[in-house]
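Sanity check record (used in CI):
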Amino acid sequence: MHRDDTPKTGRTGLERRSLLKGLGLGAAGAAAVAVTLRATPAEVEESQPERVKSRYRETEHVKRFYALNRL
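Expected output for Twin-arginine translocation signal domain-containing protein:
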């Protein structure tokens, strides 16, 4: 014969839900802070000639790449 000494008030389910909700909100808050801290833009210093120089060159390698991807 087994006797259960815990009172059956029905509050354990609510307490468990509150705990799980608190853990979920805490994790979401920590993730939001991490993303905010990480999302700062990087500043790169470029000289004026670097800003105006052309960067894209249509070489044979590039032409071959586009030709193969048209399929």
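The chain has a mean pLDDT of 75. If this sentence no longer matches the regenerated tokens, the check is flagged for review.
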